[in-house]
Write a structure and sequence with these properties.
The protein is mainly beta. It is built from two helices and eleven strands.
Length: 319
């Protein structure tokens, strides 16, 4: 249940999203945001486009519809300079997750976006993000590191993969834990126009910023296992999350398949398809608007919550 990638420390700038307005931790879902995802391969829940996202551009390929996603804020724990790598665990323990993300071009009849750089980042089994290990995840969890002086130099559970000819990027990671006031989730960005340089991805622009989610029943089973169970407290379920809007696959809910049906500790395979406009730009940073929950205590001062941004959604829909 552990990854094999050795710990890595790199020099990078901290790119923080800036939004206006916060609400109490564990706040209700934000009105006015609907994200549209479509899983064109193995979705188990029907993906429907919400009225809010209905203005999004779409293209039809065969019998399916490719939907342009609405973006949300990147949240308070983004760091630029992530490494290009398939295995992002850096030795972090947890339930293994193979994540398959397919990127489609909504302007070209759902054609795959070969060469798109897909970037993901998420917390560890106890709710800590690399680079922000002093941020309290809520509840009661062991300390992220005994050596606090270098803990924030780590880069675990962050990375890029460049999509292949079919628009597919695959990661080897773990199922995230939880932190107050968020449900179990993974952050994602899609970049185009840049290139690999010095082990990371440079240049180009961000076409999409979003979040991926896990079914409550699966998350609950996983959180009862080690090392997740060492983080005690009340975790937020999908219906109470400030970002997830209840739309199933259309709202970023991953399609998950257990490696071993009777033993969740063996891991999962997760998949989703993201439709983007390669000509558009939406970083998820500095979008303003929107409410949200307060970041965990110990987070860098002045950083935003993970709440969706109304203006970012509007920008994505109108582009």
């Amino acid at each position: 249940m552990t990854g094999t990638h050795k710990g890595t420390s790199i020099t990078r700038r901290r790119a923080l999203a800036v939004t206006g307005g916060t609400a109490a931790a564990g706040g209700l879902a934000i009105a006015g945001y609907q994200s549209a995802f479509a899983d064109g391969t193995t979705a188990t829940a029907a993906g429907t486009v919400s009225e809010t996202a209905s203005a999004s551009a779409s293209a039809t390929s065969g019998g399916g519809t490719c939907v342009l996603m609405s973006s949300v804020t990147e949240g308070p724990y983004y760091l630029d300079g992530a490494l290009v790598r398939k295995d992002i665990t850096e030795g972090k323990s947890g339930v293994p997750l193979t994540l398959r993300i397919t990127v489609q071009d909504t302007t070209e009849s759902c054609a795959p976006v070969a060469g798109a750089a897909v970037e993901i980042w998420h917390c560890d089994a106890w709710g800590y993000y690399s680079g922000y290990t002093t941020a309290n995840p809520g509840g009661s969890a062991p300390a992220e590191s005994e050596d606090g002086s270098t803990a924030d130099d780590k880069t675990y559970l962050r990375g890029y993969q460049v999509a292949d000819a079919n628009g597919v990027a695959t990661f080897e990671t773990i199922v995230p834990g939880w932190y107050t006031p968020r449900t179990c989730h993974i952050h994602v960005k899609v970049h185009t126009g840049g290139e690999k340089e010095d082990g990371t991805y440079e240049g180009g622009k961000v076409n999409y910023t979003g979040q991926l989610f896990f079914d409550d029943d699966i998350a609950e089973q996983i959180f009862e296992l080690e090392p997740y169970s060492k983080h005690s407290g009340t975790w937020t379920k999908l219906d109470d999350d400030m970002v997830y809007d209840g739309g199933g696959a259309s709202s970023g809910l991953l399609t998950l398949k257990a490696v071993h049906k009777k033993d969740p500790s063996k891991g999962y395979k997760g998949s989703i398809t993201l439709g983007v406009d390669p000509d558009a730009e939406n970083t998820g940073a500095g979008s303003g608007g929107g409410g949200g929950g307060t970041p965990p205590s110990g987070a860098p001062g002045g950083t935003p919550s993970d709440a969706p941004s109304a203006s970012a959604s509007s920008s994505a829909s109108s582009s």
